[in-house]
Amino acid sequence: QVQLVESGGGLVQTGGSLRLSCTASGTIFSRNQMGWYRQPPEKQRELVATMTSSGATIYADSVKGRFTISRDNAKKTMYLQMNNLKPEDTAVYYCNYHRILTDTIRIGTDYWGQGTQVTVSS
To answer: Which of 25, 57, 63, 119 is most buried, by CB atoms within 10 Å?
Structure first.
């Protein structure tokens, strides 16, 4: 079992910045992928960014150049630095963890945090 706790959401004006954190606890395998997903109002959940334990990253096109994902494996914590925020970034942001066999092969169960609200006002 893995538990994920997010923090750092809030209300910010267009052009502002926020940093989200996600701390994992429980049985964490050394080879894993953690990521951020978001669900805008009345829309489906979508990928924001992911990073494997070896440092490989994936970003959604909509956030490239504005958001940066990072990890502190020793602290089992992942971050999402969000700069130049736009109203369309408004969503509930979820932390995700799953075990991987390689950087492209996922195995085991997906775990999710409870979500943290990010609201960007225009």
So the answer is: 63
